Amino acid sequence: MAAKVRATHSMPWVQCTAMPVLCRRWYGSAHFISHVGALLHVCSAQRPPWEASDMQLAAHQLLVDTGAWPAAVAVHVSGQAILALPSNGQLSLDSLLLLKPDEWLDDELVNYAMWWLQQRDRHMFSTPSQQLLGVWTGVMGASCHFFNSFFMSKLYLDAGTVNYDKVRRWTAASKLRMAGQAKHEQGVLSCSLLVAPCNLGNTHWTLVVADLDRCRILYLDPLGGRRTDVADAMAAWVRAEAFDKRQQWWDTDSWPRVHLRPGKDIPRQADGHSCALYAAVLADCLGAGVPLQHCRMAAADATAVRARMLDNICTGVTRFAG
């Protein structure tokens, strides 16, 4: 029987706490402020990551209609307005407005999604007695490490050749602790899945995953692209990481490269701008322990996913239900 899950929180983009006290400065009208605060204060039911509540959709529509955005701290860098994030990072207002329909998401938004998933993973595996802490599936997901998009860019995509030294320190214990990895002392090779988003020339988003439990490399492209070179780069990194951190030789050359098939193994992307949303939802399912063939996201769900990302960022939630 599946463990019972508290209903206080649900998926990463369905957080429903009150607006943080620090949100004092707003870009937009008082009408926008009062409505967003009221909408996001009410908790929504648990849903899979491709669904959103009416309240989340309404808050997203206000963003679309007004183009306004709340900022927790009024910071301006080179004349650009910046939103301070609970991840100790920054998100430009220009990036936030990419959550409007039909916009292609950039690195800032994708990296925030990966950071959020890492925090959920940390809470699941550092406090396992607290019954999954709001994961929507009711089952314990796989232990994961979620890299940000710059990992694969530095490792391989920018230069077209694998350079382990450029990312060698990314998995030091201190770096992993700062990233929210529960297994920072054991290292990322103690996880079951290593998930890395890939920004392919600022035109398309995919995922590459090292499945350490099954000794295989997965490549997830909702458009059906096959990038064996990217899968090979991840395999080369795993081998180098094992040698560097554990003084072990892992024969990752023999690991199968599995290209998951859109429409059969994973959902098929039906437009030209929602690839980052598919990548985020698939990463979410991997971390939640959901078989990817059960992911039912469709083109019509893109707005719901954007609304949930807006909800998460707007509320600034960094803690899970205890």
Provide structural commentary.
- The protein has 322 residues and is α+β, with helices and mostly antiparallel strands.
- Helix content is 35%, strand content 14%.
- It has nine helices and ten strands.
- The chain has a five-stranded mixed β-sheet with strand order 6-7-8-9-10, with helices on both faces. Strands 3-4-5 form a three-stranded antiparallel β-sheet.
- Helix 2 packs across helix 9, helix 4 packs parallel to helix 8 and helix 5 packs across helix 7.
- The two termini are 21 Å apart.
- Residues 1-45, 70-78, 129-138 and 317-322 have low confidence and may be disordered.
Termini separation comes to: 21 Å
Sheet-strand content, in percent, reads 5-15%
Compressed to H and E, one letter per element, the order equals: EHHEEEEHHEHHEEEHEHH
Molecular shape: globular
Reading side by side through the largest sheet, how are the strands ordered? 6-7-8-9-10
Alpha-carbon Rg, integer: 19 Å
Q: Helical content, roughly?
A: 25-40%
Enumerate how many helices there are, as a single number.
Answer: 9
Task: Characterize the biggest β-sheet.
Answer: 5 strands, mixed
Low-confidence stretches: 1-45, 70-78, 129-138, 317-322
> What is the residue-mean pLDDT, rounded to a whole number?
75
Query: How many strands appear in the DSSP assignment?
Result: 10
Topology, pairings included?
Elements: E1 25-27, H1 30-41, H2 54-66, E2 69-71, E3 75-77, E4 80-84, E5 90-92, H3 93-96, H4 107-126, E6 144-146, H5 149-157, H6 173-179, E7 193-200, E8 204-211, E9 216-220, H7 228-246, E10 257-260, H8 275-288, H9 302-315
Parallel strand pairs: 6-7, 9-10
Antiparallel strand pairs: 1-2, 3-4, 4-5, 7-8, 8-9
